[in-house]
Amino acid sequence: MVQVKAIKAFSDNYIWCLTTHNSDLAWVVDPGDAQPVIAHLAEHNLQLGGILITHHHSDHTGGVAELVKQFPSIAVYGPINSPFAGVTNTLVDGDSIEVLGVRFNIITTPGHTLDHICYTHEELAFTGDTLFSGGCGRLFEGTPEQMWHSFNKLRELPKTCKVYCTHEYTQANLAFAKAVEPRNPELLQYSDKVDAQRANNEITLPSTIGQELKVNPFMRSDLPTITELIPKEFVLVTKNNEPWGNFASLRRFKDNF
Fold it and tell me: Which of 9, 58, 87, 127 has the smallest C-beta neighbourhood within 10 Å, fewest atoms?
């Protein structure tokens, strides 16, 4: 299995770097800035083998051009419908690619953006800005119903699957989660752990699918009680009480939290 390390960028981004113990090749996920990647590769005597892109936002793609200039033979994988022009190998739902001996399945996860994809394997998943630990990405382009369907795809992954999202948002997300489920013992325990990690400036990732099913209100939108403590002005009631309505209510509350 590959090793995954975080390369910090900007104020709270993580560029994920994949390596193996028997190769000098590395792949990176969502390089919004080239310089931290170049420095990391030089420090560890690595060559860039390829790039994985989850969606078009500049804090996930801004470093691609410089990295391709430095390593001109590399492939840049990304969604087929992306506005980002730097993708060389386009991907659609159901595709699979092999990276350093690991086969990743591609799932489309519209919501945060319409072009968003995730790279999934039974042991680890790169979820970009779709699924965060304790939260989800803001809906800039998609609908709550789309995002809930995207979350359902991720909910089907093994509970032990590690979740590598691209922002250090966990502590703030859990503050919101506790406002939604203040008596959730798993959430309170996890929040204490995260508070201790952040007090020491430690990374809180990866999480796991199983962990998120216990603490992330957006992953728990199918629970009929999940919106009980949300202010009434944010609650959306759908015709048949579909779970995506709860998801929409949570997102509206989070946007104003």
Answer: 58
Please enumerate in sequence order all residues whose Cβ is within 8 A of that of 11, keeping only pairs 6 or more positions apart, or say none.
none
- Over residues 73-102, the mean pLDDT reads 97
What average pLDDT does the segment 113-139 reach? 98
Q: Give the C-alpha separation, 92 to 30, whole Å.
A: 17
CB count in 10 Å sphere of residue 86: 16
Q: Which residues pair with 135 in a beta bridge?
A: 132
Instruction: Quote the pTM value.
Output: 0.96
Q: Please name the amino acid found at residue 122.
A: E
Residue partners of 189: CB distance under 8 A and separation at least 6: none
- The answer to whether 92 and 63 have CB atoms below 8 angstroms apart is no
For the chain, the farthest-separated pair of C-alpha atoms sits apart, in whole angstroms, at: 58
User: For 20-69, how does the pLDDT look when each residue is reduced to its tens digit (9 = 90+)?
Assistant: 998 999 999 999 999 999 999 999 999 999 999 999 999 999 999 999 99
Nearest residue to 206 via CA among 18, 57, 50: 18
Q: How far apart are CA 219 and CA 115, in angstroms?
A: 21
pLDDT at 242: 87
CA 159 vs CA 62, 103, 107: distances in Å: 32, 18, 17
The kind and range of the H/E element at 34 are helix 34-43
Asked whether residue 119 carries a pLDDT value surpassing 90, the answer given is yes
Task: Please write down the HEC assignment for all residues of 132-186.
Answer: ECCEECCCCCCCHHHHHHHHHHHHCCCCCCEEEECECCHHHHHHHHHHHCCCCHH
What six digits make up the tokens of 49? 């083998």
How open is the CA angle 176-163-65, to the nearest 5 degrees?
105
